[in-house]
From TrEMBL:
GO CC terms of this entry: peroxisome
Swiss-Prot/TrEMBL GO biological process terms: fatty acid beta-oxidation using acyl-CoA oxidase; lipid homeostasis
Family the UniProt entry places it in: Belongs to the acyl-CoA oxidase family.
Pfam families: ACOX, ACOX_C_alpha1, Acyl-CoA_ox_N
Cofactor(s) needed: FAD
Name this protein carries in UniProt: Acyl-coenzyme A oxidase
Domain called Acyl-CoA oxidase C-terminal: residue spans: 483-662
Source organism per UniProt: Arctia plantaginis (Wood tiger moth)
UniProt-annotated catalytic positions: E432 (proton acceptor)
Major location (coarse): other
Superkingdom as given in the UniProt entry: Eukaryota
Length: 667
């Protein structure tokens, strides 16, 4: 990137950096070629004049904003298609495609559900014949789809969905119906005015029998005219906290008929005469959700890297207050409280990326086994995906909010982009499985694992530590990274044991297990969180250690500092748990605190270099505060001038309302 016009603070910060930023960029991308390909396509997209907005999107009306998002995303699809035809893009990862979408619209693409859930469901839940028919059309965007599962009355409890698909053997069709107001599909992204097809999750009935929820491939609009088909009631659900351009919709069916072969039949089937063939495992219907929970970690890592880049660069540019009399005002990044706000968010982005890759590899392996008929590891994968999605989304939202606060008043400006990123990340705590609901799924797995501990069974890998820490009351503490990881495992084992005991204590004669479960559920969520933190610490440390050995010593040192900061930060945050479940002393905690402050100081000179290592183009960052050149104040003023209110010196409301009010006051 050109160094001219860069503010003096950022020039100095970049000179201070002790490692090669390019090396970090390649590490994050997965190699030099991957970086080159990502940059090439980002360059083509971001410099296309059709992508640039004259009026920033936040000034547009709700309707205009959607139309603009569609226009620009269609250009993006066109460019990507042209490029993928021209080249093989071996290293062009799906995550890079997703990154580029932020350079096209600031908020969410109305096509996100097409790529993120419609295509994955077709790929994973259709039989071969169905796949051959639908997937190429969906990939080329000949048809546009979404994933319609949630209803007005039910989101978490999928078994409670009310939309019905009743098989009619006379015509070999399913008849879809929305029996009540609460059975309307509600929320699917792109459903309102973008998609012409969707996956509908509905209760299957055949030969008078109920077979539970199944996915169906449903055309909802005419391909030529886009008019909703007869029997389809579809529309938009209205403005939200964020996701303004996601085009979330509602959908109702009135005796809407689809062919029998539109039920996705990889797992379960309905034969021509209405005979139902059961799936090997009915939870395979939930497969797309597992996939998305896994890839959400990459999304969170990316959004955190954007927010981190904005807040760290801004903190290097911004000067405020004097630490010592008669000395210049400090760069706010030199206040240690500011470093405390910033650096954990930077390190968390790296942690989520490496743990995300580990989870992705686990997913690929388990999915391959499922393909061969072996479901043994599905419960463990489900438990992992649930708690990691839940905890990481909540942590990411907390970190983005902290980044926003770290930018003071300017962080509150939409033009900083932190409020939009905040909305995007906050939504992920709820969608694809609400936080507590997912944490309780992991808790189910932990309770079963504890039964295994009591029965002296061999546990699956991610919970094997439970056996190790099941007997000792307080585990021996050591002020090392290995000691911290053991400490987190001891806390998770202790909390799992207590939640298990709490259920038993609530199980008085006459009490159902489910009621005892509900009474103990605060402790169950706490056990799930502790288990998840143990995993985040163990995997991130081992992965960052491994990666540090593949790069130059200078970069390796920085990676280990970031990883150790993460472990130390969370040890201090969870000191209460460590005091309960390990022999940690107040002196040990003081040492951890001192090491934490040492790590902040070690990371400080490299802070700008580390966020430069995320290599996020200004167009993808979309921020007045975070641009590469650091021209914060100029950009804030330039953006303010774009306000339509500044187009005229006196707004007509003065003559209409304010002046009459003033005149009345005179009387
Ligand atoms: C390298 C690749 C890089 C790619 C990077 C690309 C980056 C791009 C990022 C793009 C991001 C994409 C974003 C997409 C945007 C998504 C937008 C949002 C979309 C949605 O929200 S769709 C709707 C989602 N809805 C939910 O998630 C609902 C949540 N509810 C449930 O999942 C279930 O109902 C629940 C809560 C699990 C309960 O189900 P239920 O049937 O009641 O089950 P039980 O509680 O009775 O449990 C029974 C038994 O089954 C087990 N179980 C449950 N679920 C599963 C599962 N999914 N898999 C396996 N097993 C499961 C459960 O544990 C129980 O087991 P037991 O043995 O204990 O009996
Ligand atoms: C931005 C956004 C995009 C979305 N996109 C889509 C989409 O494309 N397609 C789609 O199908 N859906 C989509 N959704 C819907 C989303 O998946 C659901 O909102 C989510 O699964 C939560 O369900 P719910 O809204 O019914 O919440 P509820 O389940 O009603 O949750 C409300 C409260 O009840 C609690 N609760 C519920 N059940 C339990 C329980 N068993 N134990 C303890 N507490 C419980 C929850 O913890 C929460 O505090 C989207 C949602 C959002 C916000």
């Amino acid at each position: 990137m050109a160094e001219h016009n860069v503010c003096v603070e950022l020039v100095r910060e970049r000179q201070k950096c002790t490692f090669e930023v390019q090396e970090l960029i390649h590490l994050i991308d997965g190699g030099i070629t991957a970086t080159e390909e990502r940059r090439e396509v980002e360059n083509v997209v971001c410099t296309d004049p059709r992508i640039k907005d004259v009026v920033p999107e936040e000034y547009l009306s709700h309707k205009e904003r959607y139309e603009n998002a569609i226009r620009k995303n269609c250009i993006l699809q066109e460019i990507l298609k042209k490029y993928t035809e021209k080249r093989t893009w071996d290293n062009f990862r799906p995550s890079n495609k997703y990154r580029i979408s932020s350079g096209v619209v600031k908020d969410i693409s109305p096509f996100m559900l097409h790529t993120g859930m419609f295509i994955p469901t077709l790929v994973n839940q259709s039989d071969d014949e169905q796949k051959a028919k639908w997937v190429p059309k969906a990939m080329s965007m000949e048809i546009i789809g979404t994933y319609a599962q949630t209803e007005l009355g039910h989101g978490s409890f999928i078994r409670g969905l009310e939309t019905t698909a009743t098989y009619d053997p006379n015509t070999e069709e399913f008849v879809l119906n929305t029996p009540n107001l609460t059975s309307y599909k509600w929320w699917p992204g792109g459903l309102a005015h973008t998609a012409n097809h969707c996956i509908v999750v509905a209760q299957l009935y055949s030969k008078g029998q109920h077979y539970g929820v199944h996915p169906f491939f449903v055309q909802i609009r005419d391909i030529e005219t886009h008019v909703p088909l007869p029997g389809i009631k579809v529309g938009e659900i209205g403005p939200k906290l964020g996701f303004q351009t996601a085009n979330n919709g509602f959908l109702g069916f009135e005796n809407f008929r689809i062919p029998r072969r539109n039920m996705l039949m990889k797992n379960a089937q309905v034969l021509k005469d209405g005979t139902y063939i059961k799936s090997k495992n009915d939870k395979l219907t939930y497969g797309t959700m597992v996939f998305v929970r896994v890839i959400i970690l990459f999304d969170l890592a990316f959004e955190l890297s954007r927010a981190a880049t904005i807040a760290v660069r801004y903190s290097a540019v911004r000067h405020q207050s004097q630490l010592k009399a008669n000395e210049p005002e400090l760069q706010i990044i030199d206040y240690v409280t500011q470093q405390h706000k910033l650096f954990i968010g930077v390190s968390t982005s790296h942690v989520f990326r490496v743990v995300g890759l580990w989870l992705w590899n686990t997913y690929v392996k388990v999915n391959a086994d499922i393909g061969k008929g072996n479901m043994d590891q599905l419960p463990e994968l489900h438990a992992l995906a649930c708690c990691l999605k839940a905890v990481c989304s909540r942590d990411a939202a907390a970190r983005v909010e902290e980044f926003r606060l770290a930018c003071g008043g300017h962080g509150f400006m939409t033009s900083s982009n932190l409020p939009i990123i905040n909305g995007i990340v906050s939504a992920s705590i709820t969608y694809e499985g609400e936080f507590s609901v997912l944490m309780l799924q992991t808790a189910r797995f932990l309770m079963k694992a504890w039964n295994g501990v009591l029965a002296r069974k061999t546990l699956t890998p991610t919970v094997s530590y439970l056996s190790k820490f099941s007997n000792s009351d307080r585990v021996q503490w050591a002020n090392t990274t290995a000691g911290i990881i053991s400490g987190f495992q001891a806390a998770a084992a202790g909390k799992t044991k207590e939640a298990y005991a709490a259920i038993q204590s609530y199980l008085k004669p006459g009490t159902d297990y489910e009621d005892a479960w509900n009474s103990a559920s605060v402790q169950l969520v706490s056990a799930s969180e502790a288990h998840c933190r143990a995993i985040l610490c163990e995997i991130s440390w081992s992965e960052m250690q491994r990666l540090s050995k593949t790069v130059s010593p200078n970069l390796g040192k920085v990676l280990l500092e970031l990883a150790e900061l993460y472990l130390t930060y969370w040890s201090l945050e969870k000191r209460g748990d460590l005091l309960m479940y390990t022999t940690i002393s107040t002196a040990d905690i003081a040492k951890l605190q001192a090491r934490y402050e040492e790590l902040l100081a070690l990371i400080r000179p490299n802070a700008v270099g580390i966020v430069d290592g995320f290599d996020i183009r200004d167009e993808i960052l979309n921020s007045t505060l975070g641009a590469y050149d650091g021209r914060v104040y100029e950009r804030l003023m330039e953006e303010a001038k774009k306000s339509p209110l500044n187009a005229e010196p006196v707004n007509e409301s003065f003559h209409k309302y304010i002046k009459p009010l003033m005149l009345k006051a005179k009387l």
